[in-house]
Amino acid sequence: MNALESRLARATPSHHKSARTGAVSARPAWGHAAWGALLGIGVALLIWAPARWLAWGVAQASQGQVQWLDPRGSVWAGSAQLALSGGTGSRDPQALPGRLHWTLKPGWTGLQLGWLADCCMAQAANLQVQAGWSTWQLQSSDHSSQWPAALLTGLGAPWNTLQPDGQLQLQTRSLQLQWAQGRMQMKGLAELHVQNLSSRLSPIKPIGSYQLQLRGTPEGTPTPSLQLSTQQGPLLISGEGQWVGARLRFTGEASAQEGHEPALNNLLNILGRRQGARSLISLG
């Protein structure tokens, strides 16, 4: 009996050790399966992320001033109706007719955004975003688009007072923005033509056509220049300035052609500080 008991005593610890080893090896197998399932769900959510997530992000980033209504599709390829608003609590957002379509293509160093507005663009435009360790760069394809000036009234004051009407023609050429150590450098040109502008504050329609240019340099500049000039019309506006950091510094003046002063007086009072027949404009 003593010999039998001794053999049983030696066998028992080995049996318990084997059982414990099996339990330990089973737990990692279940853990790997759980992590694999979570990873699969995460990838699926990323690939099939609904367009409304991106629309929410745009609204949050713009503090509600840019809204994508009725989003359809996914984050990577979708469409929505673009609307401008005065922000949270605004009652009169202005939406474009038709829809805005987009595609997002991620890469190793950045992201490519393609976009096309049914109402306002003959062909799609592309925006390339590249990120580095301490820099990031935004480069726009050369393109031309035309937008209704009435869209601006959705932004609230002063646009809802001016009630502009007309066409805004936007053009970009070799436009590139680069940020390094908190400083921006601009290359290329962004140009806005305001065609046949009118306002409810003036009985004269239209009051004029204007050109606004934001110009960088071939090598890049931290202070791109801004120039405003009148192409035609009874309301004469001109000025120049610079974009310095996150602030725009601009000085200009507005006046009426001879014989149109009474009709444009209210508008001149709003545009800037009156000095005789002129209205002095100062920003920044």
Tell me what you see in this structure:
The chain is built from four helices and 16 strands. The chain has two domains: 1-47; 133-284, no CATH class. With 284 residues, it is of the alpha+beta class. It has a 16-stranded antiparallel sheet that branches. The model is unreliable at 11-26 and 37-45 (pLDDT under 50). The chain is globular.
Rounded to the nearest angstrom, the distance between the terminal CA atoms is: 102 Å
Taking Cα atoms only, what radius of gyration do you get, to the nearest Å? Answer: 31 Å
Average pLDDT figure = 85
Proportion in β-strands? over 45%
Topology, number of strands: 16
H/E series, N to C?
Answer: HHEEEEEEEEHEEEEEEHEE
Count, helices: 4
Structural class of the secondary structure composition?
alpha+beta
**Biggest sheet statistics:** 16 strands, antiparallel
Helicity range: 25-40%
Q: Outline, from the CA principal axes?
A: globular
Name a few traits of the molecule:
284 residues, alpha+beta, 2 domains, 16-stranded antiparallel sheet, 4 helices, 16 strands, 45% strand
